[in-house]
Write a structure and sequence with these properties.
This protein is mainly beta. The protein is about 10% helix and about 35% strand. The chain contains one helix and eight strands. Strands 2-3-5-6 form a four-stranded antiparallel β-sheet, with no helix packed on it. Strands 1-8 form a two-stranded parallel ribbon. Strands 4-7 form a two-stranded antiparallel sheet. Strand 2 and strand 3 form a beta hairpin. The longest helix has 10 residues.
Amino acid sequence: MNLPKAKNTFCPKCNKHTIQKISIYKAGKRRGMAAGERRHAQRKKGYGGQKFPKLAKPAKTTKKVTQVLTCPDCNKKMMKKGIRIRKFELVAK
């Protein structure tokens, strides 16, 4: 699915419509010292291996893509609800 790199959308902070840039959300780097990571490592440690069985075949064939809209006036970022799609591309309109 091809989407434009910018689109005219309402900005709740400016309280008006502006032409906003669209980008794709990418998750940040996982922190090894985060509480959940430490807990997972602790439960995996020792005999017995994996905490839960690794899936042999993934259930879903697509990933959810979340769009991030950035207002040019106030630089506020808004996230749109993720859509499940196989191929997602931003094109200049």
